[in-house]
Each structure stands twice: as C-alpha cells, then as structure tokens.
C-alpha cells in the first residue's frame, strides 16, 4: 500500500515538473519577444527594453524558470501587465466564482447522470434504456454555450426568473447562488449525458460477472444485487469520469462564463489572451494543468480505497 502511494506520488510530482517545463518553454523560450507582443509592433526599442527588465526577461531562461517555480510555492506569481495587480490574487478572486460554478454543475451532472445510467442498465433494452440512450446522445451533441443561450432566452428573457448574466458577489449567498444556476445547468447537461453512458456501460459490464449470478442464486432481491453488488463494483470507471469532469468543468468553462458574463477563471483566461497578458496566461495555463494532474492523482488514490485488490499489491 505504501509503495503504491509513493509511486503515485512520484509520478504526480514528475508530471507537474514536466507540465511546468512545457508551459514555460511555450511562453518564454519559443521565438518571439513577450514584451514586444504586449506593447505591439509600434513600440520603441527603449520602451520594450524597459518592459523586458520589469518582467525579468533580460535574465537567463533557467533563472526565470526557477524564479517562477519558487514564486509558485510562496504565492508570488508576478504582476499582471494589463490589470496591474498580483496574478495570485487575481486567480484567487476569479476562483471564488469558478469553483462554486464547477461544483454546482458537477453536483447536477452526478445527480442526473448516475441514477439515469443505473436505471438504463437495470432495464436493458427496454423503454428506460432507450430513453437514457436518447438523452445521452442529445446531451453530448448540444454545445454547452448554445444550451446556455437557450436558457437565457427561456428563463431570463421570457420567464424572467433569472438574470441574463453577471455576478452580484457573495455578500448575499442566495443571490450569488441564483446567478450560477443557469450556467451550471448549461455546463451540467453534456457531463450528465456522458456520465449516463459511462454508468450504464460500467454497470452492464459488472452485471455479467460470476459474483452477480452467485448473488442471484442466493435469492437476493434485484435492488440489492443492483446497488450492493453491481453499482458498487462499477464505481472505478464512474469515479474516473467524475474526476475528469470536475477538472474539465473548471478548465472548460471559458465559453459559458463569457456567455453569462461571469468573472471566473475561464473569462480571465479569455481576457488575458485578448490583452496579450502573457504573465497571466502562463500562470492560468499552469493552474489548469496542475488541477488536472491533482484530480487524476486523487482519482488514482480513490482506486486504492474502492478496489481491495489494488491494496493487496506490493
């Protein structure tokens, strides 16, 4: 058990290191001058040189990389060229919107997709299975930003139950949560469709195992066999896709946050790209990569808890 954990931890640290090297190389070592990109082609050479010194671009590449990594441990990620504030505080401020949005969307996706997938597997080749399969195909086919526009037209412009966009802050938690409902639903639909398909396939695969037939021979009820044996042993692929979905919901919320005008991390990435703020882009890209790596690490650890056979390995 300890050996497996240490190997997973070593792989986690190595993956983070490789990701940071690739992001740094793409942003700092590829041809092109970051200061010139920020200031534009019409900038004077002395102005570009002053900005290079301000951003530390006049230092060797390895010093810039080590300084960036050390700053990540201390919370000093540099200052945004376009906002004029520390990048760490800027990301933390935007995460106060994106993390609750992703958590709410994931909660909706799990609450809808998991029971529907189990329902479809339990009624294989019957009407519930066809309904769940149709929902899965439609949900995967509909882009989340387009579905968000439909929600705005229906519930904001038409029924006027929700605002069309914007975020009032967390001073009044009820108002803040209400502002996230429509974008969370828009994000949740495709993920619920994917989770329905994965849950259905995982439960059907387990249903053909010998221990399920043994449970049936013992006279256990259908619901007990389904939830106690089939679903429990199908959790590994389900947990895997849920972990991937959480990281995708945070990193992939760029379009939905722009549709609903939410000041989240996805909108920050979009604005940084349009403003050519390479300091923000580099750190946001590293945050997205680190988030995916951390979630995958936690999912790997969950396997050890869910599957005793993995704990028995040395």
TrEMBL record:
GO molecular function: dipeptide transmembrane transporter activity
Record's keyword annotation contains Transmembrane: yes
Localisation per UniProt entry: Cell membrane
Annotated TM spans: 12-30, 101-122, 134-155, 175-195, 234-256, 284-306
One Pfam assignment: BPD_transp_1
InterPro entries in UniProt: BPD_transp_1_N, MetI-like, MetI-like_sf
Keyword field: Cell membrane, Membrane, Transmembrane, Transmembrane helix, Transport
Main location: membrane
UniProt topology in membrane: Multi-pass membrane protein
The keyword Transmembrane helix is assigned to this record: yes
Domain ABC transmembrane type-1: 95-299
Record's GO cellular component terms: plasma membrane
Family: Belongs to the binding-protein-dependent transport system permease family.
Name of this protein: Peptide/nickel transport system permease protein
Organism for this UniProt entry: Aquamicrobium aerolatum DSM 21857
Phylogenetic placement of the source organism: Bacteria, Pseudomonadati, Pseudomonadota, Alphaproteobacteria, Hyphomicrobiales
